[in-house]
Structures are given as C-alpha cells and as structure tokens.
C-alpha cells in the first residue's frame, strides 16, 4: 500500500463556521458532524476535520489546495462575492492580486480562525521555472 494523507485536524474557534467557510469557497460539501469534528472532504478523499479550540490555543497553519482552472475561477468569484480579502502572496503584501507562479494562478486568503488558505492551479515545482 502506498502512503497517502487521509485526514488532518484543523483547529478553529468555531468548527462549523470554519468548515462551512472553506466548503463554500472551494465548492465542497460539509460532512456530518462526528464527535468534536466537522469534516470537509476533498476530491482526493483527504478530510479536513475542523475542531473547536480556545482562540489562544490555535496555531496558525497554511493549507494549499490544487484546483483546476475552472474551479479556481469559481472559487475566485465566490471569494470576491463574499468580500473576502485575498492576496497574491502569503505575507499579505499584495492585496487584491493573484499570482502566476509555476505556470498557473494562485491566491491566498484567511479563514475565520486566521489560517492561511491558498488555491493554486499548478503544483509547485522546485527549482521554480
């Protein structure tokens, strides 16, 4: 059997709010709550299990999602329609812009807990082209 990522726990101030936020932006479904988790499953069957923690316990993480050009366009439109601030860079120095790294398009936005979310249309390759 090959090694695959199955799930990860995403700390949030409100598990349902964060799961619904990400699912809306990416055009995914929120799964049924089980125990302390509200899951969002990606197309490759990796589940992000959102768990509520006190705000001071949340360590900000980065989550990147590889999407098709069509999915990028749809997510980008939902981001703009919702008034979500987005950036071309993870340091948030280029607000209102997207990037064109690695021959694709990408952008960063923050989720309700402050995690740095990224959508990209081309996987990163190193060294960069």
Give the strand content.
Answer: 25-35%
Helix content: 10-25%
- Strand segment count: 7
Radius of gyration: 15 Å
Output the structural class: alpha/beta
* Biggest sheet overview: 4 strands, mixed
Report, as a whole number of angstroms, the end-to-end distance.
Answer: 33 Å
Catalogue the unreliable spans.
none
Task: Please tell me what the overall shape is.
Answer: globular
Write the element-wise H/E pattern from the N-terminal end onward.
Answer: EHEEEHEEE
**Number of helical segments?**
2
Please, what is the average pLDDT? Answer: 96
Q: Numbering strands along the chain, what is their spatial order in the largest sheet?
A: 4-7-6-5
Helix-strand blueprint:
Blueprint lengths: L6 E6 L2 H12 L10 E5 L5 E6 L9 E5 L2 H13 L4 E2 L18 E5 L5 E5 L9
Parallel strand pairs: 1-3, 4-7
Antiparallel strand pairs: 2-3, 5-6, 6-7
What does this structure look like?
The protein is α/β, with parallel strands linked by helices. 19% of the residues lie in helices and 26% in strands. The chain is built from two helices and seven strands. A four-stranded mixed beta sheet has the order 4-7-6-5, covered by helices on one side. Strand 2 and strand 3 form a beta hairpin. The longest helix is centred in the middle third of the chain and has 13 residues. It is globular, with a radius of gyration of 15 Å. The chain starts with 6 loop residues before the first strand and ends in a 9-residue tail after the last strand. The model has no long low-confidence stretch (mean pLDDT 96).
């Amino acid at each position: 059997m090959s090694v695959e990522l199955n799930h990860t726990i995403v700390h949030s101030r409100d598990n349902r709010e964060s799961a619904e936020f990400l699912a809306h932006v990416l055009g995914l479904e929120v799964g049924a709550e089980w125990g302390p988790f509200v899951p969002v499953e990606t197309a490759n069957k990796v589940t992000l299990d959102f768990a509520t923690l006190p705000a001071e316990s949340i360590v900000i993480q980065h989550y990147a999602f590889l999407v098709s050009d069509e999915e990028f366009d749809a997510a980008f439109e939902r981001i703009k329609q919702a008034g979500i601030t987005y950036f071309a860079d993870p340091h948030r120095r280029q607000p209102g812009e997207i990037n064109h790294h690695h021959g694709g398009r990408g952008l960063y936005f923050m989720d309700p807990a402050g995690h740095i979310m990224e959508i990209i249309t081309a996987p990163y390759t190193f060294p960069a082209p």
